[in-house]
Amino acid sequence: MPLLTVQNLSKAYGPHRVVDVPAFALEAGAQVALRGESGSGKTTFLHLIAGILAPDAGRIELAGREVAALGEAARDRLRAETIGYIFQTFNLLQGHTVLENVELGMAFGRGVDRAHAEALLKRVGLGDKLGHYPRQLSTGQQQRVAVARALANRPKLVLADEPTGNLDTRNSREALALIREVCRENGAALLLVSHDEGVLGQFEQVQDFAALNQASVP
Ligand code: ADP
Ligand code: MG
C-alpha cells in the first residue's frame, strides 16, 4: 500500500480552480520530484497534503488512514507525526535558538527529544550552532535548521517546497544532496516540488505536475 494516496483532490481560490488532481500516489521511502512552472499550484498541492490548507473536495490517505475521516485533533496528530515540511522561506522562529526551533517542532508531534534534536543538528553540520539565533546564521545554515526540524518527529514523509530556491548554485546542490541523504537515513519518503531543472535533474523520479493537475491555472 502506498504511503500517500490522493484522489480527486481539488482547491479553488474564489473562482479559480488551482488544484484538481484526480490521482497521485507515493510509495514509502520513495524520492520523487514534481516539476511545475511558477503559479502552477505546487505549493497549494503540498499545503493540502500537509493540512496547512483544507481541500474543497477529495481524499488524502496517509499511512493507511483517510485523513478527512479523523477528528481534527487526531488529524493534526497524524500529520505532525507523519509529515515533515521544508518551506521555501524556511519559516524559522526568529526569536528562538536553532535547538529550540527543532524542539518546538517536536512539541507538536511525538514530544521533545533533545538528544534526537541535537543528533539531527549535528548531522546537518550545525552541532556548534545549537544556541545561535537564525539571524546569526547564513542562508544555507538556516536551511539546514529547517531540514533538521523537518526530520524531528521521525516522519514517514518529507514535503519540500523549492527548498533550495533561496540558495546559490553550489549551496543548492549540497543542500539537496543533504536533504536526500537524511531522508534516506531516517526512512522518510521525499516529495519535492520545483521549477528548477538543476534541482529536478538530480532526481531519478521526476513527474510533470501539469500532467497530474487538471486545473487550468489562470
Ligand atoms: P506554485 O507554488 O506552483 O507557484 P501556488 O500554489 O503558489 O503555485 O499558486 C497557484 C495559483 O494560485 C497562483 O495563480 C496563485 O496566484 C494563486 N494563489 C495562491 N495562493 C493564493 C491565495 N491564498 N489566494 C488566492 N490565490 C492564491
Ligand atoms: Mg510555490
From TrEMBL:
Keywords associated with the record: ATP-binding, Nucleotide-binding, Transport
| Pfam entry (one) | ABC_tran
Cite the GO molecular-function annotations of the record.
ATP binding; ATP hydrolysis activity; transmembrane transporter activity
* Cited Gene3D superfamilies: P-loop containing nucleotide triphosphate hydrolases
Q: Is Aminoacyl-tRNA synthetase set as a keyword in this record?
A: no
A single Gene Ontology CC annotation of this entry is: plasma membrane
* Record protein name field: ABC transporter ATP-binding protein
Which sequence ranges are marked TM in the entry?
A: none
Q: Boundaries of each ABC transporter domain copy?
A: 4-216
Asked if the Swiss-Prot or TrEMBL record annotates the protein with the keyword Transport, the reply is yes
